[in-house]
């Protein structure tokens, strides 16, 4: 083979590699944004914990029908409600099993499924936080209008993607009293980059970078604008971040950066030893329930009592 033929074949191979990379990145975009690929069945319900509850239906701020559970406080009447936001490819039942104990601590609990997840309707497209902010907007509007006496004070709890959504909402809604975010990523780009490499062994360049490009093109917005890194500095209410030191998607350094960026004077970061992504409750066990209860009860105290 002549030198010229080698050059031609090299160029053709590079073109083929580029085309394959574009195709794989485009398909990976669909895996991230296509709701059916993310839906997991709801196998845990309030009945598992003998909790009274009501199944409710409401709309996101852009009109998508969502499904949720309202669980009244089991220790008496309460004007305090915690809204729970689950993670990517998860559902409300997954959060319920780790946080149901709060119904006995003076709070009403409101769990719901994001669009395309659990028992909520598909919207044709989801995201990793951006569109889900509209779902939380709808949840807040519903609970404060349908249960005004039981939701005079609203608190947020979010895990992973749900933590990102909770942080964004708290930064833009002055009525939120406090927010807890577990295993919450720093930014959209950072979590896609780490997820691609840690879970799929796909290098950032070129595949992950092109996937991010196609996702942004499809959403017609930069999701990073809705990420914790861009919004946590606007939070002035009590904030509690929880992260595992064995989390392959959210590093301790990123969690520390987020807590530093937060403007709230009442902020704290708890690193759970040995916990992987979104596994802090089961790793910490009873200590998780104690810490979470302490945070919400402290945030709910009148200012004069603190």
What is the CA-CA span between the terminal residues? 82 Å
Tell me the count of domains.
2
| CATH topology annotation of the largest domain | Rossmann fold
The whole-angstrom Rg is: 21 Å
Can you give me a brief rundown of this structure?
With 306 residues, this protein is an alpha/beta fold. 42% of the residues lie in helices and 16% in strands.
Walkthrough of the structure:
With 306 residues, the protein is α/β, with parallel strands linked by helices. The chain has helices at 3-33, 92-99, 132-146, 161-172, 188-200, 204-219, 228-231, 252-261, 280-284, 286-300, and strands at residues 54-59, 65-71, 80-85, 108-112, 153-159, 176-182, 239-244, 267-272. The protein folds into 2 domains: 1-33 and 188-220, no CATH class; 44-187 and 227-305, 3-Layer(aba) Sandwich (Rossmann fold), CATH 3.40.50.1820. Helix content is 42%, strand content 16%. An 8-stranded mixed sheet has the order 1-2-4-3-5-6-7-8, sandwiched between helices. The longest helix is centred in the first third of the chain and has 31 residues, at 3-33. The termini are far apart. 47% of the residues are buried.
Task: Fill in the keyword field for this structure.
2 domains, eight-stranded mixed beta sheet, 8 strands
Helices and strands in order, then pairings?
Blueprint: H1 3-33, E1 54-59, E2 65-71, E3 80-85, H2 92-99, E4 108-112, H3 132-146, E5 153-159, H4 161-172, E6 176-182, H5 188-200, H6 204-219, H7 228-231, E7 239-244, H8 252-261, E8 267-272, H9 280-284, H10 286-300
Parallel strand pairs: 3-4, 3-5, 5-6, 6-7, 7-8
Antiparallel strand pairs: 1-2, 2-4
